[in-house]
Design a protein that fits this description.
mainly alpha, single chain, elongated
Length: about 150
């Protein structure tokens, strides 16, 4: 969980900021406009809700399945976004490379969570030694120390 909070999340925010700089340089407000901005907010939510779930809820098969589904929804929205944007403005190679980070970072987060909850991941597919758990509950107290800042 520490890797998710102190490596993957900051990396995602830095990549998002770099993408914003690209949009600013291409004058998104006068090219693709509000629709592209709305697509970005949609993608932010598609990644943000699973991230919040991983940070604050007890991880089980339901949460893992939610994260996986939202990853694919995010990928579809990202394809829609770039398809739309390229009809109005130039998407530079640098911006495309930044997009690759914004697409792979959520997958890194899922892999990190799955590696810690492998049996529940297998249970999503009817395999493994654990029964699929689908309850929604806050993380147990033993994880609350990880939620506090390291200083």
């Amino acid at each position: 969980m520490i890797i998710l909070m102190y490596f993957i999340l900051p990396l995602w925010l830095v990549a998002g900021f770099a993408d914003w700089l690209c949009h600013r340089a291409s004058h998104i407000e006068t090219t693709s406009g509000a629709k592209e901005s709305m697509l970005h907010l949609l993608m932010f939510a598609e990644v943000g809700f699973p991230l919040l779930a991983a940070m604050f809820l007890d991880i089980n098969g339901l949460i893992i399945a939610f994260m996986i589904v939202m990853f694919f929804v995010h990928e579809a929205t990202a394809l829609w976004d770039v398809s739309y944007a390229t009809t109005f403005r130039t998407v530079t190679p640098i911006e495309q490379h930044i997009h690759s980070f914004l697409e792979i970072i959520p997958l890194m987060a899922i892999v990190s969570v799955v590696s810690l909850h492998w049996q529940q991941f297998l249970a999503v597919f009817g395999a493994g030694s654990e029964t699929l758990r689908t309850d929604v509950s806050w993380k147990p107290d033993r994880y609350r120390s990880f939620m506090s800042p390291p200083f």
